[in-house]
């Protein structure tokens, strides 16, 4: 007997359950399996990817759903969007075929034979999960014979976390690495940077000397030019007198260079005098590899009080302190800013932190302060030409830029640049829009200005902006690029792995959304949101991760901090700051 009379009214039946939610967890797998069968038999395939003589059939929608690269290719006005045969050049055919198969099957094998080609191809296709898997595989393969090559490969593909792990391994196993041929094939500058490091496997200076002489001896004729500069990196006073006499003074590399021989002779002569010298304290033994970078937060506002204090985050200890976590002066509290300020610009370069503009609550500032964090000393710096509150700052081509902000009467589109040669600020081309509380970052030799409050036409009209523009220093011009999906002011941005990330912000409501801009396809895409809605917060990069720091959550100023891991598209909380900070400046500094 039928459950319902077909002539029954279509009105709802009051005694029946309102609805039934049906879910089939196997459905996604079934669809993928069927699509893979279609692909094998070339059914319903609407594109052929041509790599050399190989053809890879596929479905546009499937590729576009799995790769931002393919999505941009097939949904834009590019000629490939309508072509049935699409040719891809400078791509490994086997790797591309394996990645497309992975798109349909969600399974792949990474091994030593394919990992480099897979990572290169996955980077192009922006398949972040595969990139992460390849990096994890390479991290597990680190050995004395390959860590230098893996570090160089990571540099090539902007894999920051992998590079950090390879660098850490290199420093910890330095004495083993120098026995390998890969070490002997290093470029001079890479070797110079290495042997000047304070962190080389436990502090054995004899090993450093051995490394330098081995590298020079490998190709004496063509490398002797570098002998003096490399030997200057050896801390001869830390070598024993016997070693200087028996191993150093008679070494063929030393005797083949008059300059080197003189240098060693002088070192031997003064060896016994070093402990009485006024410079004795300047010669430090090398230490084992430890934390090399820390986050700094400066200034801002807390509970109505404008701050001058600084605090530092040590990722190894996962804690914040008011002193720099560095062995030579650990526990010494950092000196604060001479002028408390909020809404400031903050950048770091060459062991110095630059604090620009902001407001001391009564008016916008044009002053700039410079902090030598290793010496714990502040120094004066030429004032900007314009007071700027809510400005952005960045280094580009070795020059310091101050971007936008607000003076006492209006929002600004002006930009000024500090030239270290003449110690002066000068105006460069203005932005197309007036912007305050914007995000500014350098990427690929260009300067990006993102969002903010302001106007496309007038410096007096307060609008929340989603527009983005890019400055080319060679042309001295700003160009509008793809706008964000959302308007955002009081926003912070960061450049990582060839992309711009814009985090949270305010446009009448506080947001936790995060967008990523890829300049290769000129498009913004959403990634995982932050855990806490925030505005006027700090953002910085540390060890290949993005940190969102402090700010205002719509109710109160916050001190919480969270970290984004791009490999897994995930945010997680780390230790909070000691002080709630709104409108602070943040950056990452090297304390190695």
Notes on the structure:
- The structure is a single chain.
- The protein is α+β, with helices and mostly antiparallel strands and 592 residues long.
- It has three domains: 27-141, Potassium Channel Kv1.1, Chain A; 166-272, Serine Threonine Protein Phosphatase 5, Tetratricopeptide repeat; 293-590, Kelch-type beta propeller (Neuraminidase, 6 Propeller), CATH 2.120.10.
- 26% of the residues lie in helices and 27% in strands.
- It is built from 17 helices and 32 strands.
- It has a four-stranded antiparallel beta sheet, with no helix packed on it. Strands 9-10-11-12 form a four-stranded antiparallel beta sheet, with no helix packed on it.
- Strand 18 and strand 19 (446-450) form a beta hairpin.
- Helix 4 crosses helix 5 (115-125) and helix 6 (128-141) runs parallel beside helix 8 (160-172).
- The chain is globular.
- The N and C termini lie far apart (82 Å).
- 39% of the residues are buried.
- GO terms for molecular function: ubiquitin-like ligase-substrate adaptor activity.
- Pathway: Protein modification; protein ubiquitination.
- This is Kelch-like protein 20.
- Keywords: Kelch repeat, Repeat, Ubl conjugation pathway.
- Pfam families: BACK, BTB, Kelch_1, Kelch_KLHDC2_KLHL20_DRC7.
